[in-house]
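Record pair follows.
FIRST:
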Amino acid sequence: MIPALALEPRGDATKLRLFAAAIDNIIATILFIVAQKSMPGDSTARRWLAASLVYLAYYFIQEGKWGATLGKRIFGLQVIRLDGRPAGWMESGARTLSRIFEANPFLLGLLPGALAVIWSKHRQRLGDMLAETIVVRRAVAAAMQRAHAGKLQRAASLRSNER
């Protein structure tokens, strides 16, 4: 079993996650529109590409730095690795790149990611599966990180005693 799930009842964070996703998508879409409108030049393709990068950067930067987007923070959620450690830049990158397929308006919008969260055993979207992460309540993330820190402290103590 995934350690974090022992503390997170099945689906406990799912509804909160959907509300957080709605907020994040609204904010990222506004940033997308502002970026597209403010880009100089005539190249529609370049404007769409730049605006899409702004949309994706909204998720990548926040999840890489803090382990949560604004929407997740509002609803008390955190992205963590399956072993309970904090998610970092690599996990954020994998989650963000998967959004190209999961949140693409030309590929059924947010439907693929939402269906994956609803139907997957551990309530993960495709990006979570790829990055080996899970979204849990902040209290669960904190408990998992304390447990991981305790393991590291015990291991260091054992190593120092062996010397």
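SECOND:
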Amino acid sequence: MPTIELLRETWVDRLNAFTMAHEGWMASLEVFGPETGEHPAVVDLPLIGVSADRVDHDGTVAVSVALSAGEHLTRVIRDVARICIEQSDDGGTAALLIESADGTRTTVHLRATPLRGQPLRVLDPPHRERDAIS
């Protein structure tokens, strides 16, 4: 699958466009840390959005998913060094790859619709509202 790296100066605009195109899609987040290995953080929750810091441009990216109509979960990724969009064979978006300076990688896998009969699950303990999973 082709991968497109986003230029840092385009992160805010490109992630806003990404959010507009994929809001409500089922998102699964996997985190790979050099010391912790790979583990799923979220499985099949509706994507609310992905945003880059607009003010300080300090390399912080936030990924938010819905837990329910009134609650959400946000993963804050600090010291982001690189953001890539992995395209599917038909040219659509398959995943968003976010890599921190310390080598930690967060992958946001997308699916346009939920699987029938599949419950929505959060694997990490839920942090609500403004709390973040690190």
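COMMENT: The mean pLDDT is 83.
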